Amino acid sequence: MDYVILWLRGESADNQVGNLVGKTVNLIKLSVGTESVEGLSAWHATKRAQTDDGLPRHVTRMWPKREAEILNGGSIYWVIKGEVLCRQKVLRLDEVFGSDGIRRCAIVLEPELVRVAPALRRPFQGWRYLEMADAPPDLRKGQEDDVALPNELNRALAEIGVL
């Protein structure tokens, strides 16, 4: 459709082109079985969790429909033991096939795990989109070693709206 006509009607052309220009979205995923950020890092160092070029990856059954937005600077935020604790930049999405012949998506990640301000998150299945405005901020360099609040206190403060 002609974008000038849309503009004259007062309609947004963004909807027609998928609103992708400059838009970025993240993913959020539970890191099941991981006890800490260090444990996630150790898993990513194993050959099973890497691509042929040695980059960490996460294989999932579903291919993200918002691929262009993810690849426009998005990250995957990892939930570890009920808290979002770190993120990794998404580099690309690779097509892989399981031993059952089913097509899957390998989310290829930057090796660096960036610590973020801890944020409580209830369990969910699979991955979800996480808008930039809802993503926890990165911790400043040197802040990573600050003592975190105990989980019980963190949860209580979140329940009353302090965190």
Could you please describe the fold and organization of this structure?
- It contains 4 helices and 7 strands; from the N terminus they run αβαβαβββββα.
- With 163 residues, it is an alpha+beta fold.
- It has one domain.
- The longest helix has 9 residues.
- The termini are far apart.
- About 6% of the residues have low confidence.
Summarize the structure.
By secondary structure, the protein is α+β, with helices and mostly antiparallel strands. Helix content is 17%, strand content 31%.
Percent in helix: 10-25%
Average pLDDT rating: 84
Q: Largest sheet, described in full?
A: 7 strands, mixed
Helix-strand string: HEHEHEEEEEH
The structural domain count equals: 1
Rg, Cα atoms, Å:
18 Å
Please report the total strand number as a whole number: 7
Give the strand content.
25-35%
> Are there runs of 5+ residues with pLDDT below 50, and where?
12-20
Taken from the alpha-carbon principal axes, the silhouette is: globular
Q: Measure the end-to-end span.
A: 46 Å
Number of helices: 4
SSE-based structural type? alpha+beta
Oligomer: single chain
